[in-house]
Amino acid sequence: MKDVVNAKFVQEMIEVTSNMYRLGWDERNGGNVSYLLDEAQVAEVLDIHHVIRTLPLAFDASQLAGRYFIATGSGKYFKNVASNPSECLGIFRIAKDGRTLELLWGFDNDSKPTSELPSHLMSHIARLSVDPENRIVMHCHATHLLAMTFTHSLEERDFTRTLWQMCTECLVVFPEGVSTIPWLVPGTSEIGEATAAKMKETRLVVWPFHGIYGSGKDMDETFGLIETAEKAAQIYTLTQAQGGVKQTISDTDLHNLADAFHVTPRAGYLD
Question: Minimal CA–CA distance to 207: which of 217, 195, 215?
Answer without folding.
Answer: 195
